[in-house]
Specification:
about 375 residues, alpha/beta, eight-stranded parallel β-barrel, two-stranded antiparallel sheet, 11 helices, globular
Length: about 375
Amino acid sequence: MSILFSNYTLNSPRGPLTLANRIVVAPMCQYSANNGEATDWHLMHWGNLLNSGAALFIIEATGITPEGRITNACLGLWDDRTEAALKDKLSRARALAPAIPVFIQLAHAGRKASSATPWDGGQLLSPENGGWETLAPSAIPQLDGERLPHELSKDELKQLIADFVASAKRADRVGVDGIELHGAHGYLLHQFLSPIANQRTDEYGGAFENRIRFPLELFSAVRAAYQGVLGMRISAHDWIDGGWNPEESSNFVTQLKPLGCDFVHISSGGISPKQKIALGPKYQVPFAKMVKELSGLPTMTVGLITDPHQAEEILQDGDADLIALARAFLYKPRWGWEAAAALNATVTANERYWRCLPREAQAVFGNVKVGQR
């Protein structure tokens, strides 16, 4: 049996959560919410990917405040209205698919907030065009020439922690099985970690120990309020000289572990357009391997992993514990089925799909039978 299709257990204070295989659908922004509320697009999108053959689905970056969204079309979870919409769409999507765990990624975009949607150019919106004041560890813009973000005060940092905790409690009521805090891709928590964005002179900036202080404080507060599986996604490398690097990432994760971190999801980049990413197959896997070896935490790897044999090789080499795919699932929503066929494994599927398999993949759903008069 392939490792990709073997069980994997994530532990938490609430108890163990066992995944049926090692395939994860990574969070993917849809920019399709209505004032933060999940819509019918989410119902369709989630229902589709819950039928993908993956063992874990992670809901997209979800703003913990309105101003924490990347765009004004991003999903939110900050009040009863957004909570009710998310719960409604998620419960309906889950009813249309095999039972698999669902996590949610809680996020604040920081200085990368107030953006237009990607198909509208993705640039910083002016107040006249619906934009809002952005927040950051330091008054440094994402792009040269942009208006400066507001530098967060210590009192505002406390409020942000309270906002994350409140959203975590809402996520628990919605019924998700785990939470991923978004500390990657140049958003707020990553901005605190990186010296490119964080040039504060107080105890939250400067030395490595100061730059990691706020993310650690925030994680501890969420852990105290939420007993399910809790982890963090991080950018392991800024890809800029003098930026956040894999060694600092590994050190940071080792300090997350005793705070009750149950997993870490390794990505990279996003802090600046000046980054020089060395793209290629499995280009982020070495970062996941380093973090996994130094921290001992369950580790997800992601990024240009598109072939089932490639995913299996990563696990066989011990470089990661879970394989996350994002856009590959948009292009091939049944990637998990194809991977099972390629590796002689099985996945669970809604019985309505049992008749769909081609002759060469008849065993993918196991020993299922259909009849007809």
